[in-house]
Amino acid sequence: MEKITASIITIGDELLIGQTIDTNSAWMAQQLNNMGIWVQRRVAVGDTKPAIVEALDAEGAAADIILITGGLGPTADDITKPTLTEYFGGKLIVHEPTLQRLMQFFESRGLPVLQRNVDQALVPDVSTVLFNSWGLAPGMWFEKEGKIFVSMPGVPHEMKGMMEDDVIPRLVKHFQFPH
Hints:
Layout: E1 5-11, H1 13-16, H2 24-34, E2 38-45, H3 49-62, E3 65-69, H4 80-87, E4 92-94, H5 96-108, H6 115-118, E5 122-124, E6 128-130, E7 139-144, E8 147-152, H7 156-174
Parallel strand pairs: 1-2, 1-3, 3-8
Antiparallel strand pairs: 4-5, 6-7, 7-8
Helix pairs in contact: 2-7
């Protein structure tokens, strides 16, 4: 059996300047290693389209599974979702279950719903949406040329929950693992 390989891409200027410590990639690497998947690279890139596309190209050429965290929030520098949409040849559409959850979240707290919050319910139509039980930004599963790309929020507890409840079970179904 051929070895299954993975790469981890973390996105965010805050990671590159040391403002935030990247605990996500270490945790994901441990989980993948426990499954018998060889993590061959961990790459951190800034919040720029060229850096994200370059990382997607390089890691997509080198690994079977590419796990991505970060850049899915409601701030202006979070450009991961539109970049992924363009990269995989889709368009952004409203994911109604996510929109309903967002609206309930803000209304239950008496908070105004801003357009940037509503935009978190936009997902690429070429992805499988991964529900986020721990936050508001959904994850996204893409398949391209036999490779699996999974984009998840950068908030550690959100990413961990999504990995444990959705991503790992999907990977187990998709691949035959030695462990």
